[in-house]
Design brief:
This protein is α/β, with parallel strands linked by helices. It has twelve helices and eight strands. Helix 1 links the parallel strand 3 and strand 4. The protein is globular, with a radius of gyration of 17 Å.
């Protein structure tokens, strides 16, 4: 389905009982709503699961501006379009950066927070240099080259050894991302603020989930992030890397379902 918010059309899927607790799932970089297929299929039996494509990705429009704040504003407006006052906001990696921006700018819309495989800190200089290189790669060689460069870090060693079909599935999703969205999101992530000071202000129940083999948002960093959140609880998923929801969907879904049921 398509919603027109701000200056763009945002594609979204909205499944589950209309009176169920709304769960807004925000994909990472350079993903699209398909990241959440294992959650959509299971959690929608109980909850209203909304999985948008962020601007620049999937079937959404690609025009800018791009920033974590703009992504967050798009999603707040989408909730309004859908008649949803408050939702549980679940963001993976870049989706977590956007969930932090939603809390910063639209806290009244947030019933609970789920941060998956993400971090609160800003990029350092080394990461900004890597992002510049990736922008150059996307513009010269396309999304397939970015997918090849990214996919190994996206999944854990267990998945690489035991589930090559999942690695291929994730690679296909990354390779489908529009170059405009890749470049826009990379530029936006480079300048995102350090959200560490924001963590102490989070006044809603919060679940932090991380794969034990995540090399992009390591367990140590997520543990520190979660400890800084007043009502934060941490769940470490065994045998999973950065896309823990895809690699170990049963454990991920169980953690989310237990958390949401207590709200
Ligand atoms: C993601 O999965 O969204 C990215 O790894 C985030 C990032 O590059 O910082």
């Amino acid at each position: 389905m398509l919603a027109h918010v701000h200056n763009i059309s945002i594609w979204y899927d909205d499944v589950g009982p209309a009176d169920g607790i709304p769960l807004l799932c925000i994909h990472g970089f350079p993903h699209d709503h398909r990241l959440w297929a294992p959650q959509r299929d299971t959690l929608s039996k109980t909850y209203r699961v909304i999985t948008p494509d962020l601007r620049g990705f999937g079937a959404s429009g690609t025009n800018g501006p791009y920033s974590m704040d703009q992504f967050a504003d798009d999603l707040a407006e989408l909730l309004t379009e859908l008649g949803i006052t408050r939702a549980v906001v679940c963001g993976l990696s870049m989706g977590g950066y956007i969930a932090l921006a939603l809390w910063r700018r639209h806290a009244r819309r947030v019933l609970g927070l789920i941060f998956a495989d993400t971090k609160a800190t800003a990029d350092d200089d080394a990461m900004r240099t890597k992002r510049q290189q990736m922008i150059a790669m996307a513009m010269s060689a396309g999304a397939g080259a970015v997918a090849d460069a990214q996919v190994t870090g996206m999944v854990g060693i267990s998945t690489r050894l035991e589930h090559p079909e999942l690695v291929e599935h994730v690679r296909d999703m990354l390779a489908a991302a529009p170059v405009e969205g890749i470049v826009g999101a990379l530029e936006a992530m480079m300048v995102r603020p350090d959200s560490t000071p924001l963590l102490a202000t989070i006044g809603v129940p919060t679940l932090c989930i991380v794969g034990d083999q995540d090399v992009i948002a390591p367990v140590k960093e997520m543990r520190e992030m979660c400890a800084a959140i007043p009502h934060g609880e941490l769940r470490v998923i065994d045998d999973a890397g950065h896309v823990s929801n895809v690699e170990q969907p049963d454990a991920f879904n169980e953690a989310v379902a237990q958390f949401v049921a207590r709200l």
